């Protein structure tokens, strides 16, 4: 057990770049953490960590040993989680990342029911519109809108497909008119999401017809909720996936334009690290989210 504790202390020191922070995170005194590190270095006969008054860093051998220790501790943690999963008792903190729009509309509303079923899981949500590294950021589940992950260590589980549409408020259309063809957009005020692929060129498809239209944003933002709010105020025509604005379209707050043309669709996926033993918290939340999407028939609504 002392060996595992020594490795745990060493890994935490390497991750936090601080002996005192590592001690605090493990509920140890700084002196106790220092003794564990010293005992580990003594047993291995190697210097793992170099310290000065200004900074702490790993030696070359320490860097290599860190990766081995990290993998071993992860495997041990996952083995415990697998045992707990067999009795449907997930525990711990589940770290989820998704865009602000997805968090607000499709994660937060589900948390009360998920918490009722699995009261021993604490959910931590990281709102991010850019895709970060799951390993470096310690994320368990990421919601992403791309078909595949460039990292083979990441598993992708499909949630739903969604159309992207153009829409504007009735006030805007009364004031500026309704575009009748994709080319007409060049005379309109467009509200563009800057993180979209080719945000300044729209690719339209209608049957066998294909058309690429360069566009300039009258207003641009890196968050879909900001774009939506601008459209609701009559600022222009937005380009957004239906999973964000479906309720606004149904209520008439936003009116689709050029709806007989199709833009490239998005596939919403759950992404998580591929592991021999999936943790109970990841498995239960993934299953819970997939079941909810199927029950609500979101893909049918968002692709109609």
Automatic annotation (TrEMBL):
Pfam families listed in its UniProt record: HTH_1 (PF00126), LysR_substrate (PF03466)
Record keywords, A-Z: DNA-binding, Transcription, Transcription regulation
PROSITE patterns the record matches: HTH_LYSR
Keyword DNA-binding: yes
Domain HTH lysR-type: 1-59
CDD domains on file: PBP2_CrgA_like (cd08422)
InterPro entries, alphabetized: LysR-type_TF_proteobact-type (IPR058163), LysR_HTH_N (IPR000847), LysR_subst-bd (IPR005119), WH-like_DNA-bd_sf (IPR036388), WH_DNA-bd_sf (IPR036390)
Alphabetized GO MF terms: DNA binding; DNA-binding transcription factor activity
Family the UniProt entry places it in: Belongs to the LysR transcriptional regulatory family.
PANTHER family in the record: HTH-TYPE TRANSCRIPTIONAL ACTIVATOR TTDR-RELATED, HTH-TYPE TRANSCRIPTIONAL REGULATOR
Protein name: LysR family transcriptional regulator
């Amino acid at each position: 057990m002392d060996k595992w504790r020594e490795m745990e202390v060493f890994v935490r020191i390497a991750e936090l770049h601080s002996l005192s922070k590592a001690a605090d995170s493990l509920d140890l005194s700084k002196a106790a953490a220092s003794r564990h590190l010293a005992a580990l270095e003594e047993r291995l006969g190697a210097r793992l960590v170099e310290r000065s008054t200004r900074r702490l860093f790993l030696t070359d051998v320490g860097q290599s040993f860190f990766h081995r220790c990290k993998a071993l501790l992860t495997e041990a943690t996952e083995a415990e989680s697998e045992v707990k999963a067999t009795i449907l008792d997930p525990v711990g903190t589940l770290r989820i990342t998704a865009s602000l729009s997805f968090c607000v509309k499709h994660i937060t509303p589900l948390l009360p029911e998920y918490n009722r079923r699995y009261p021993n899981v604490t959910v931590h949500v990281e709102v991010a519109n850019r895709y970060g590294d799951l390993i470096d950021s310690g994320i368990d589940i990421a919601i992403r809108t791309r078909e595949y992950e460039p990292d083979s260590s990441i598993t992708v589980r499909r949630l739903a497909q969604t159309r992207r549409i153009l829409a504007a408020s009735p006030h805007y259309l009364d004031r500026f008119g309704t575009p009748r063809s994709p080319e007409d957009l060049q005379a309109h005020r467009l509200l563009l999401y800057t993180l979209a692929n080719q945000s300044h060129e729209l690719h339209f498809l209608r049957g066998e017809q294909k058309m690429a239209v360069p566009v300039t944003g009258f207003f641009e933002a890196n968050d879909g909720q900001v774009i939506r709010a601008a459209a609701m105020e009559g600022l222009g025509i937005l380009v957004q996936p239906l999973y964000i604005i479906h309720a606004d379209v149904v209520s008439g707050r936003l009116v689709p334009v050029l709806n007989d043309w199709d833009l490239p669709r998005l596939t919403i996926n759950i992404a998580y690290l591929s592991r021999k033993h999936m943790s109970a918290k990841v498995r239960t939340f993934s299953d819970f989210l997939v079941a909810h999407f199927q029950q609500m028939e979101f893909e049918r609504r968002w692709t109609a």
